[in-house]
Amino acid sequence: MATLRRLREVPRHLLVCEKSNFGHDKSRHRHLVETHYHNYRVSFLIPECGILPKELKNLVTETGPYYFVKNLPLHELITQEFINTFVKKGSCCALTYNTNIDEDNTVALLPNGKLILSLDKDTYEETGLQGHPSRYSGRKIMKFIISIDLMDLSFNLDSKKYKRISWSFKEKKPLKFNFLLAWHPTGMEESTMMSYFSNYGIQEHQPKIAVSMVTDLQCPVLQSSELRGKLEVACSARELFDWLGAVFSNADLNNEPSNFISTYCCPQPSTLMAKASLCTITGFILPEKICLLLEQLCHYFNEPKLAPWVTLTVQGFADSPVSWRENEHGFQKGGEHLYNFVIFNNQDYWLQMAVGANDDCPP
Amino acid sequence: METSSERTGSGPRMERAIYHALSQKEARELDVQHPGTQRAEAFVRAFLKRSTPGMSPRAREDQLQRKAVVLEYFPRRKRKEAKKKSRGLSARQRRELRLFDIKPEQQRYSLFLPLHELWKQYIRDLCNGLKPDTQPQMIQAKLLKADLHGAIVSVTKSKCPSYVGVTGILLQETKHVFKIVTKEDRLKVIPKRDCVFSVETDGFLSYIYGSKFQFRSSERSAKKFKAKGTIDL
Predict the structure, then answer these.
(1) N or C, which end of chain B has less CB nearby within 10 Å?
(2) Which CATH superfamily is domain B105-222 in?
(3) pTM for the model
(4) What is the interface pTM, i.e. ipTM, of the complex?
């Protein structure tokens, strides 16, 4: 009975909706986009649009490459050379590939120079570095988080802290992972990652881009000032969120009783759009690129367009140890952490941030 | 003659009583001449000697002093003294005595290297020579009962991250704690609980789970170890 009850339980999830204007001084959109580091999938939906505008298309194809390195030992990430070449000059992001956040050891490098290690109990007890238990452990603590500040370390290479960390990574418990790396250089430097990690079998990948056109789409009617929706006039932010998920998963939105897969139907009031373009970029995408994309989408409404609003959705890696800034992220029955912008033609926007069960509240 | 028979028993008084000088009046009445103390004493002694021919002088003295001869002896029930058991000192007293403290000037790693050599030799003898093909089980069994003073131990795993990596020569082993001197000449006290130590002997690396090892080294040699519970820290 208890098992059945547990299986029927829906894990807790949080959805934070806020509205603001891009021109507003205190608008947090830049900060939130830039502090969400590990982005897996970016998609945007433009209703009433047949072909993507040229600038958008260029930007989409120019989202930079990301790199995949096999069996990179951890001590390579704390060498002075690496810190000077990549971490200090630009924003370098790294994440271990194919490690489950709730089972295995995971390592992430954030652009602000912090190296986050999320280790299981046995590994933590063997490395001998000071860390703290994860906030989402039960009675018996099985996961520990160690946070190393690389910028701080690089000031003083003879410090005891640095010596202990390199002793631990080189001799005591050498750990090797497959990493996904991406680097956005400040200044006009070429990306030298390929040559730096050449002896570890580094491969360059371009993000996958999928552009599709959806016809005869039922879209909800929204009013930018009414976040909660108004009866018979506009839909609420939550309904829009659900609808967007249904569109992205190509579900039929007509609530046919014979439809086995989905009985979802578009929230009312809705209008019928003849066509809408849906573009998805999948890969290891840097926050800077998403900022540029967001700006470009704002400029979409510089010329009058048929569409009342456009949406931009960004999903993070389910196995990332952090969600926003350094908030801890965990995986219970789903490890989602994503955000969604709804951009209106008067430069208003709605921002929705959603997290799963083992997560802190989004900022 | 005036004799005072009130108090008998004590020698000098008795003598004074016997040899008490006559008062002048009595002497005139009885027409006795005062012979003098010494002459009187000599006279009495000679008289006693003549009267008791069979007795030794000592026996005569005893008789005079009326010493009793004890035939049976019934001692009074004295309070029994607490039997002094060799219980040893309690931990507090031992700590106060500072017998087992190692003074700072003696805490040098180089001083204990010969001890380590001795220990290696001891282990080699214990295991009948450490050949590469000796069975690990045998080494394990022997190490469980062996004395580890002088071994180089290092902490491989511990619930507290700052203990991990401490390596040095073992100086003292108490019930719960290892006292180790490291290469930097520092005395480190490492609790055994929730730690895994590694001991290396001639190519054989053994891991000691400290939580199961919490016995005094003297008691450990007689202890039978059972595999109970989990070795998870």
Answers:
(1) N
(2) Ribonuclease P/MRP, subunit p29 (2.30.30.210)
(3) 0.74
(4) 0.76
